[in-house]
Amino acid sequence: MQKDITRVSNAVRGLKNMTEYSLSWDEGCPYQPENYKAFLRPVLTLINDRIVKLSLDIPTDSLRSLANISMPSLQHFELGLCTLELQEQEINDIFDHLVVFINNLDRTLVSLSISSRRSSPNLDLTRAFAHLGTFRRLQKFSLTIPFDGRHLSNPAMLVQFLQKHHDTLHDLQLGANPCSTANYPNPTTSNEWIYTILAATRNPYPRLSAVKLALRPLRADLTPVIKFLAQHAGQLEHVNLTDRALEHGELEAILYGLGTHAPLKRFEVKLSCLNSAFLSLLVLHLPQLAFLGLTFSEAKTFAAPRNFAGDRAARVSHELVSILAYIFCSKAGLAT
Question: Residue 328's pLDDT is what?
């Protein structure tokens, strides 16, 4: 084991141009915590002054050793969490060390990404967000947790963290993973954690230009999402709405909220059914798009509308949906 560590350390020491370091694991395989610890602190201390991006998705109990590592050039930190059978007190102890490491990046950190797997029954990130400081250069924040919000019992602590970076955030991503099958209580107030965070935004983020939002729960009222997008309509260039398949009226409400002068260049959305009515909305409201990403499970074509020749939006949407429906139905073996 020590010989392997020495070989890796010597190899890393010779990679003078290496600026990124990534370490990950498969939770389904047996592991020795010492293996991950050996390739964490010993290696990072050799390259700490030149690493710009660090990605760690390793057993959570291996993260304690990060606290005393200084990384003066680190700008992008990605953290994956899987606590397995660790108890709450053990997790809190680990996070006390982890928060020290992250807070020491206050002058350099540009993006922070945190995700948690469902096999973390005792994980609660509330305490961590309460103790994270202010990062003067933070432009991107991403959080992905099980969609029922059980890993964030009090969304107010995340709201507080985001408000600290109100003036610097350019990119906000709130995502959802599958829920845990563990049989333990889940506070109902956490189910709508994403909507709660969006609804708590009183003043628009002045530099926000990109958002990626999981529309969970699937049947929740979309008003907080619509209002949040409308608040930032004059500046958003990229909007990605995931998980929920939108009906015509829901998409219409979102697009009306964005207005006709939104500078959107990329728009990604999931539709309940692709048809010319949906595409007419997109053509009318977002004619300046450079990229359109559509996810759908059904496509329908209709006869050309009466004003087909004179209405550009109707003509474009009808032609496009006809092509997409043909491709979709051909691949799926369905008849139009």
Answer: 43
- For tokens 């983020």, what's the residue? 205
pLDDT in tens, 221-280: 999 999 999 999 999 999 999 999 999 999 999 999 998 777 999 999 999 988 878 878
Contact yes or no for 81/73 (Cβ under 8 A): no
First-to-last alpha carbon distance for the chain, in angstroms, is 62
What letter represents residue 260's amino acid? T
- Please report the pLDDT score of residue 180 as a whole number: 63
Q: In what order do the strands lie in the sheet with 291-295?
A: 20-24, 53-57, 76-81, 111-116, 140-146, 171-177, 210-214, 238-242, 266-270, 291-295
Distance between CA 132 and CA 163 in Å, rounded?
Answer: 12
From CA 19, how far away is CA 78, in angstroms rounded? 14
> How many C-beta neighbours within 10 Å does residue 131 have?
15
Q: Which regions of the chain does DSSP assign to beta strands (E)?
A: 20-24, 53-57, 76-81, 111-116, 140-146, 171-177, 210-214, 238-242, 266-270, 291-295
Report the distance separating Cα 231 and Cα 11, nearest Å: 50
**CA 60 to CA 265: how far, in whole Å?**
38
pLDDT at 189 over 90: no
The alpha carbon dihedral of 99, 191, 296, 311 has a sign of: negative
Closest CA to 111 of 60, 52, 69: 52
Cα distances (angstroms) measured from residue 150 to each of 66, 153, 317: 26, 6, 41
Which domains are delineated in the chain?
52-180+187-244 (3.80.10)
Quote the Cα angle for 122-128-131, to 5°.
150
